Amino acid sequence: MNHIFLEGLFLQASLIFALGAQNFFVLESGLRRQNPLIVSFTCFLCDLILIMIGVTGMATLLTQFYQIKIIFGVLGICFMVLYGCSKLRLSLSNPRTFFLEMSDSSLKKSIGLSVTFSFLNPHAYLDAIVLIGGFSTKYDLLSQRVMIGLGAAFFSLIWFLALSFSSSIMKPLLENPKRMRFVMSMSGVVLIFLAGKLSTDVYAWVIAMANDPKCSFIGICSSPQLLMFP
Questions:
Q1: Which is nearest to 82 in space by CA: 230, 195, 3?
Q2: Distance (Å, rounded) from C-alpha 103 to C-alpha 100?
Q3: Which residue of 2, 36, 80, 206 has the lowest C-beta tally within 10 Å?
Q4: pLDDT in tens, the chain (230 residues)
Q5: Minimal CA–CA distance to 41: which of 157, 134, 154, 132?
Q6: 152 with 8: CB under 8 angstroms?
Q7: pTM summary value
Q8: 220 in the Ramachandran plot: left (φ > 0), alpha (ψ -120 to 50) or beta?
């Protein structure tokens, strides 16, 4: 079983390194010292849930009803644009407002944002449910597929903790309002950029679905390859 666990771990390692909204949020939480461990663990639990859904056989359902991916994509775009704009607004605010916002480290808010960044991301569904879940089907036993999932989820935990701890060493940035304004403005720009990138993906998915004669927005689609990235 150990080699299966490692197989899942290395599979997730090959998928998670790309800079995404979730990774960027974990980095920012560590930089601002806003419950970084809670954020990391919450993101890990969200990944674990999605991965377990995939390895237990739910990938087929998502393949047939991939309109779910489009819906979550649109919601993710809206959320990232609004959150990115709030960062840009914060970077232009007066110092008092700026540091009041920086000190807002509500546990409930941190958990809520972690869940939102994790679940309003259709690429997370593709990686965790379709790719990892699909890869796990090479094994017949459910216990073996679950072990692959646990390996993949364990790497997620390591990765998120590494992001949090590595960003926390940049504490001196917090001591200078100009530097933190720059960080906030860059955070807003990156989030809006990622929203734009996601919008091109969603547009391609919609076009692909419209061109599939065996697929309607509320029906079952017969082209699993449309789940892949454009």
A1: 195
A2: 5
A3: 2
A4: 677 888 878 777 766 766 677 887 888 787 777 788 899 999 999 999 989 988 887 666 655 666 777 777 787 788 778 877 877 887 676 555 554 455 556 788 888 888 988 888 777 777 787 778 777 777 778 888 889 889 989 999 998 888 888 876 766 655 566 776 777 787 778 878 878 887 887 888 788 777 765 555 444 454 444 444 33
A5: 157
A6: yes
A7: 0.70
A8: beta
